[in-house]
Amino acid sequence: MKNKILLDTTYLLPIFGVSVDIKNFSSDFNKVIDESSVQASSLSLLEIKFKILKLSRTIPKLKERYLEGIKSIHLAKEIDIINFYLPEIEEASIDLYKHHKDVFDCVILATALKYSDILVTEDVVIHSLAKQIQREKGEIRPKTFHKKLETITWKKLIQSTFSRGT
Q: For labelling alongside 36, which of 5, 79, 129, 163 has CA 20 to 30 A away?
């Protein structure tokens, strides 16, 4: 069974024409899509829209690239988009907000806690908060959330995914 991997917003940016400074990202991204059950929060798409609209002031072609990216994600079905407004995600994200004041991060972490085995992020605050939640079982997350969530960086994901010889 494939691991359910929730990607933080950063890793979706290239789909919308915004590059990320990660070595071999494009080829590794395609391998991850093939090897795993990849997920993203619908809130990441909104966050990307905000970024694209801001960047498009100086790079107008990004608006079109954004629309192409949305169509691509919608049609390809390779990434499972999880709605951010589900009641259990909202409940947990509100609890998480008491510990971290970035709403986007709280929703993405709550989504991963509910639906994913692994959360891939470069955000050290999310890594720290996820570890805290694992220690304080039940304080933040509803009982239906996964008992164990692994938070890792892209580099670690690639090392662990491709070191097993697949």
A: 129
DSSP secondary structure string for all residues of 104-151: HHHHHHHHHHHH-SEEE---HHHHHHHHHHHHTTTTSS-TTS-S--EE
Largest CA distance in the chain: 46
Could you tell me the CATH number of the domain that includes residue 118?
A: 3.40.50.1010
Domain total for the chain? 1
Neighbours of 77 (CB within 10 A): 8
For residue 139, CA distances in Å to 99, 124, 127, 133, 158 come to 12, 21, 17, 8, 32
Kindly state the tokens that stand for 89: 């995600």
Greater confidence, 122 or 133? 122
Structural domain of residue 90, as residue ranges?
4-162
Question: Alpha-carbon distance 100 to 107, whole Å?
Answer: 11
DSSP state of 16: G
Give, rounded to a whole angstrom, the gap between the first and last alpha carbons of the chain: 14
